[in-house]
Amino acid sequence: MAIKRMGSQTVKLLNPPAIISASSIVGPKEGQGPLASYFDKILQDDMFGEDSWEKAESKMMKEAVRGAVDKVDLKIPDINYLLGGDLLNQLMSTSFAARDLQIPFYGLYGACSTMAEALGLAAMLVDGGFADRCIATTSSHFSSAERQFRFPLELGNQRALTSQWTVTGSGAALVANNNEGPYITHITTGKVIDYGIVDANNMGAAMAPAAADTIGRHFDDTSQLPEDYDLIITGDLGRYGRDIASDLLKTKGYEVVKNFTDCGIEIFDWKKQDTHAGGSGCGCSAVVFCGYLFKQLREMKLNKILLVSTGALFSPTSAQQGESIPCIAHAVTIESKKMN
Amino acid sequence: MGSYISAFIVGGIICVIGQLLMDGTKLTPAHVLVLFVTSGVILTALGIYEPVVKIGGAGATIPLPGFGYSLAKGAIEGVKKDGLLGAFIGGVQATSGGITAAVVFGYLMAILFNAKTKP
Amino acid sequence: MQKKKQTVQNKKYQQYVEKNSPKPDYFRNCIWAFLVGGLISTIGQFIHNQIEKRMGLSHLDATNATILVMIFIGALLTGIGVYDVIGKKAGAGSIVPITGFANSIVSPAMEFKREGFIFGVASKMFILAGPVLVYGITSSVIVGVIYYFIK
């Protein structure tokens, strides 16, 4: 077996790459949420001075990437690879951002799991000696996602109780071989899991089995227990999906209760902000990680976390054809100190 | 005054049926609209909707089954007047005002206003 | 849409999810639907009575004119961004009346303006209302044809 592999789905980074900088930008609604003070920039208008929501989303991503690079006094040409994705058809926001940024670009589609996917791949590129610095970034926008996946915004429909609110925002993390942490130490790549849920308004239930599978596999592969982590945080399972995932993990023999939460739960105050089950979207785990979690790790308030971004790999076409929702979850271990 | 109360009650009940369909099943608003127009047509053909309109007035013609009622009634009147051709002419003829208004006002509003994000 | 063979595990999971999913508040939703749907109908009745009285139209013409006015109101409220706020509370109460039909036309038309006036506004206008017209008109023709033969 390759020397960096552990178990069936996990890799251990022998020379853990550091996340040297992270930047986040969010829309007005996220700016009223409980994590508001951690974000670098809060937009007053979700059009961001552009003439379409898609362009606004692309601009957010550009700003987030530039922000992450500026913070450590680097320049765009210092970045070897841009790894990123979004929810729109043919990765519109990311491709357009990459066109303007002119960084060598790998476009990724993992739906809302893309942030952990990008972080993991960036870490492998750096640890493998293929790059000095990589950017991992994703974005999503409520209005652009809503018109692609659901109904027109002005339609007077009611949202299901299990439905989630797509986060308007973009986060970018700069991964480099450097000495200032936090560090990415393990990556568990998920498999596509489908338990036959067809209801696109209940993504939490669709994605929970994928999250539980990846988290359980991570513990199996690394011989760790949930207690070894300060925080295990999924991407966007929402309130109901989080409970299902923790039930499923119990059947696998892992008790995660106290240190188990979800980015979609943390980003909004569901009671006050009427977001039903919580936030979702590629941008959800991106801004919660790049805004809140990164700072907590830097300040050593958290020392070891497992970021598990979860994605529902359906399309409007597959949903209309009555297909069930295939889901995936990718896990990345991030530690504030290098343990060797 | 009586016409207002009966309109309120009949209109309200028709909407409650729609609400129960949406909450109790996985039907989307689009499904409910289609279902209601079609049931309006069928109920009118069976002679059930006419009495509802007599009682409810606008409470029966403003909800979407009322659109089906006009369509079906128009088609039947058309057949009485023009024979088989009337089946094709009557329905749309009776509802032409509403359909044209929806297209024209819809277009006009779309030109005048821009969609805003949900609060 | 064919039902695929489900594994036992999937079936069990789906039952579990069904059982643990939050249920909508039927009572409150129905009250809202009843009140708003009733109110819209009453406004319609008022307009109808006024038209019949002041303009001296026949009952049928007054009904048609009322529908015109209601469609205009629904379209306008959608345009100024009020209808979706009403709809969030009222549900079917604002979807089922003809004003909801207008809302289903205006909302996609507005939203897809950036995709142009032909493929955006004009074609997306009917993504929700199109099916209503297709099934409404087709079923009325069927009714007319049957009536012709049994008359």
Explain what this protein looks like in three dimensions.
- The complex is a heterotrimer of chains A (340), B (119) and C (151).
- Chain A has 10 helices and 15 strands.
- By secondary structure, chain A is of the alpha/beta class.
- Chain A folds into 2 domains: 5-176, 3-Layer(aba) Sandwich (Peroxisomal Thiolase, Chain A, domain 1), CATH 3.40.47.40; 183-335, Peroxisomal Thiolase, Chain A, domain 1 (3-Layer(aba) Sandwich), CATH 3.40.47.40.
- In chain A, the strands form 3 sheets. In chain A, strands 1-2-10-15-14-11-12 form a 7-stranded mixed beta sheet, sandwiched between helices. In chain A, strands 4-3-9-7-5-6 form a 6-stranded mixed beta sheet, sandwiched between helices.
- In chain A, strand 1 (5-6) and strand 2 form a beta hairpin.
- In chain A, helix 1 crosses helix 2 and helix 5 (203-222) packs parallel to helix 6 (238-251).
- Chain A is globular.
- The two termini of chain A are 21 Å apart.
- In chain A, 59% of the residues are buried.
- With 119 residues, chain B is mainly α.
- Chain B has one domain (2-112).
- Chain B has helices at residues 2-24, 29-45, 49-56, 58-61, 64-82, 84-112.
- The radius of gyration of chain B is 16 Å and the shape is globular.
- By secondary structure, chain C is mainly α.
- Chain C has a domain at 26-125.
- Chain C has helices spanning 8-20, 26-54, 59-79, 83-90, 92-95, 98-111, 117-124, 126-150.
- Chains in contact: A-B, A-C, B-C.
Instruction: Report on the biggest sheet of chain A.
Output: 7 strands, mixed
Global Rg of chain C: 21 Å
Q: Specify the CATH homologous superfamily of the largest domain in chain A.
A: Stage V sporulation protein AD
Number of strands of chain A: 15
Distance between the termini of chain A: 21 Å
Compute the average pLDDT of chain A: 93
Distance between the termini of chain C: 38 Å
Number of helical regions of chain C: 8
Q: Care to count the β-strands of chain C? A: 0
Spatial strand arrangement across the major sheet of chain A: 1-2-10-15-14-11-12
Low-pLDDT segments of chain A: none
Percent helix range of chain A = 25-40%
